[in-house]
Fold Transporter.
Amino acid sequence: MEKPPLPYDDDTVVTPDSQLCSLAGEGSQEGVVEPPARDGWDSKLEYFLAQVGFSVGLGNVWRFPYLCHQNGGGAFLLLYVLLMILVGIPLFFLELAAGQSIRQGSIGVWKHISPKLSGIGYSSCVVCFFVALYYNVIIGWSLFYLGNSFQYPLPWEECPKHGNTTVEECTASSPTTYFWFRKALDITDSINETGEFNPVITCCLLAAWTIVCMGMFKGIKSSGKVMYFSSIFPYVVLLCFLIRGLMLDGAAEGIKYMFYPKLEIWGEVQVWRQAATQVFFALGLGFGSVIAYSSYNPRSNNCHRDALTVSTINFLTSVLASLVVFAVLGFRAREVAMLCVTRNLEKLSEQFSVGPLDRDLLPGFNISDPSSVPLEAYRDWFTAHGAKVPGNLTDCSLEEEMNKGVEGTGLAFIAFTEAMTLFPGSPFWSALFFLMLLNLGLSTMFGTLEGILTPLTDNFKVLKRHKTKLTVFSCIIGFLIGMLFTQRCGNYFVMMFDDYSATLPLIIVVVFECFSVSWVYSADRFLDDIEKMLHWRPPVIYKYLWKYVCLLAMLGLLGASLLRMCFKRPTYTAWNRETASEVTLDYPDWALAVLAVLIIFATLPVPLGYVHSTLRNRTRHNSSGIGTNTRGVYTKCSTVECDTPVAALLDEHLERNGIPKGPPSPLAEENLRLLPQGEGVEDIEDSTGL
């Protein structure tokens, strides 16, 4: 059931597709067919779960713990919280308030502020499409591993054998590494070697797009219901893993190692860049999905409280995921270290069997029973006497194993998967883990796709009338283009899209968003709009955060990202079959050209939108003669005799739409006076959705 139109003021009603009030008075409303009401969330909980589900994604599980571990542990957490408060929450609040106030998708919101800024919304749509292409491939991988989890033993627990010989590539690496690179991806040695399509992963990708299409079939009416499970279930799984992980030997060392603060990292620019980037992506800024979801809210909804709550939950989820990851990886590191102790004690026993050794070199523990030897006892003995004993004994360091930080697919499909094989009842934990990844991915995919569909249907009436067909068509196109990632070299393209197709364009989008609201539209005026909407005024600190802190921070992040790309040739991590190890390779020239095309294609709508609007204004001015000010600057008229006469615009709009003329409402005149001067009624209709 559709929601009724939402109140703008106490006695005025706006159409759901516009921020302008009725252009005609009460006497002219007879016989006028009202446009269909905009959909709305069935409950506040449904909306809240959707926002949390979109912002909390795979990055919280496999990127944040790695960054925290590699960049100073507790010191990185403090830096992350600081940037979240100064930059993340203000920008998140800005997007929530803009979508809820204007009740349009990203294209309509920025077009409402100024038609010259409509390109910002189109850039958001392009980036959302790029992200959706490769993100659904990761969901397909999760489906593949989920399907393989229902067998015992798990297929990645042991190396396969050809006859009586163990596969050499697996022996030289590990069973989980071999299964990921050879069985799941069947990967090539470089991005230059394309290889044929992987039929199993292609089927998994088709299944992933089918699930997304079914979830989005009726827009937020269907995806909102799915969120009750996909947003809550990952927390249940994380809590189960945390309880199980804390009972494992080595979990305390893993958690301690992660959170140990190294305050000296605050002086490194690279750490600030990574923390700002993580804040930026963790909240989903610039995608347009936050704006799209909030546009279905009642105008009286407290979006300021939502911004604080969702941001806090996002951060706490990242901390919870870090606790889980490092508790499990601490257990894995201790197991690897104890295997090292066993191998060394076997060598030591062989030395004793060959000939007598100096009694002073004898350890104080029982070398015939390696399982009873504490890791710390062995390390103390090795530090004192290891170098004096023949046999090339090695140190067995838990810290060294923990230093092998892994992120992304390496964490999810190799390191964490290997740790789960050591759990009792490993198939159960494996199925639980990959079902969690599946739901984390789906909730983010729903938001990403909504960031494409909502702006398009809001601004193109033909698409709005056929939104279901548009959803199905988008999923089909996404699957067909996404087959690029199911080739044997597909993982390299996933890394390319993940690292470069979204980062720079999204930063540019958010820079323009922040500049548009705080300087073009005016931060004071935006706070006035929020005050009218919420019936209370947000703290004035937001004005200065938007105008200076956020804008300068995003410009700094943009500059740091550009410098990094210019001075360091982009690289990727490839799997070498002969050495059974990962190697870092430079992207070939053709791949760099693809990167450049992706970035340009995603950012091009911003200048194109400005040029198109400017040329259109001049054409309208020359052809109609309406308006004398073509600068597109927002000015407030004091009388009806403006540069763009209100009465003329009203009469032209009513005549074009066959509406009987009547006295205009005062609020309608006031809204028209706030529109850019020098535009004809066609531009006003385009910018308002009338």
Remarks:
- Residues 461 and 505 are 27 Å apart (CA to CA).
- Strands lie at 7-9, 12-13, 161-162, 165-166, 571-576, 581-586.
- The chain has one domain: 44-336+404-619.
- The first helix runs from residue 44 to 55.
